[in-house]
Design goal:
InterPro entries: AAA_SelU, P-loop_NTPase, Rhodanese-like_dom, Rhodanese-like_dom_sf, SelU, Tyr_Pase_AS. The longest helix is centred in the last third of the chain and has 21 residues. Helix 2 links the parallel strand 2 and strand 3. 53% of the residues lie in helices and 14% in strands. The N and C termini lie far apart (50 Å). By secondary structure, the chain is an alpha/beta fold.
Length: 339
């Protein structure tokens, strides 16, 4: 079984499958993108083995681990065969590159696979992830505009035109505001970091990179400070769309959600919204008038976005003003023309 560092391991992972020997809970908290979970232990089994290691001895822990793993060995082989036939190669790792990945690597190697293990395990990978956030992107351009301007759609159209993008909302599975997480599965901070790291490493730093003007927090995911600081200093193209069009978009995106979800979203910004606006918003939701409720939300977010603009260090290089918002594809073309 060969071992290699995180950078080489990730290069190999572009071509060969990765099998993560950690528990389902560890995997759910964060994993290498596209990895397959092949847990040697269940969550409960790992807890039991760990307790024996601490309270009894290493030998007793190993023996108990063999009790758990032995009956599963054939299943492991069959699960790997569903993804890759021998000789592979196949890539394996656990938390620190210790007994779990060594055991899985030995089993697969015995069966005839060429196995490559991640030296230092997932912990080494996470250090690599954090290092990638120091990558300089000198041609970054920020796409800005008030809530409801349709920035994310424009960002996707820029990608369709061959531009490089970092879609922070897509990576966080959240649309940015208090309402942005409605009916969306939560992404952990670790997984957000891992997926973002992969996007950054695939960028060409010599070309333009577009990123939406997000706050430090996108839902519950924090944008890494080195990237956020670069974004604050990068030039900005600002979309200026009429209040009518912005409100139309807000109603279209959120108006069909359950009243309870909308009330919870307003509850999260209650203190900053103010008691009177909060009361009006809730009364409007109860009356089925989300357009009025949306007006209250936009007043709050417009003010917050204004504060964010004041904190930026980078210049506004273009303002694209639309009384009637054209298609996102057309706006994307206008953005490219301005830079």
């Amino acid at each position: 079984m060969k071992r290699c560092g995180a950078a080489e391991f990730l290069e190999l992972a572009k071509e060969y499958p990765v099998f993560d020997a950690r528990t389902p809970a560890e995997f759910e908290d964060g994993h290498i993108p596209n990895a397959h979970n092949l847990p040697l232990f269940s969550n409960e089994e790992r807890a039991e083995v760990g307790t024996l290691y601490k309270q009894k001895s290493r030998r007793e822990a190993i023996l108990r681990g063999l009790d758990f793993v032995g009956p599963k060995m054939r299943d492991f082989i069959e699960l790997v065969e569903e993804v890759s036939e021998p000789p592979g190669p196949v890539l394996v790792h656990c938390w620190r590159g210790g007994m779990r990945s060594s055991s899985l690597g030995w089993l697969l190697g015995t069966y005839g696979y060429d196995v490559v293990a991640l030296d230092g395990g997932y912990k080494a990978y996470r250090n690599h992830v954090l290092d990638t956030f120091e990558t300089k992107l000198p041609h970054m351009i920020v796409l800005g505009g008030l809530t409801g301007s349709g920035k994310t759609e424009v960002l996707h159209e820029l990608a369709a035109l061959g531009e490089q993008i970092i879609d922070l909302e897509g990576l966080a599975n959240h649309r940015g505001s208090s309402f942005g997480g409605i009916e969306r599965q939560r992404v952990t901070q670790q997984q957000f970091d891992n997926d973002l790291s992969r996007v950054i490493t695939e960028l060409d730093p010599s070309r333009r990179v577009w990123v939406e003007d997000e706050s430090l927090m996108v839902g519950r995911c924090r944008v890494p400070h080195p990237l956020f600081d670069q974004k604050k200093e990068a030039p900005l193209v600002c979309l200026e769309v009429s209040d009518r069009d912005r409100l139309d978009r807000l109603v279209e995106e959120y108006g069909e959600h359950a009243d309870e979800a909308l009330v919870e979203a307003f509850e999260r910004i209650k203190k900053r919204l103010g008691g009177e606006r909060y009361r009006r918003a809730l009364e409007a939701i109860e009356a089925g008038d989300f357009r009025t409720a949306g007006c209250e939300a936009l007043r709050y977010y417009d003010k917050a976005y204004g504060y964010g603009l004041e904190e930026r260090d980078g210049p506004i290089i273009a303002r694209l003003t639309y009384d009637v918002r054209p298609s996102s594809a057309e706006i994307a073309r206008h953005c490219i023309e301005q830079v």
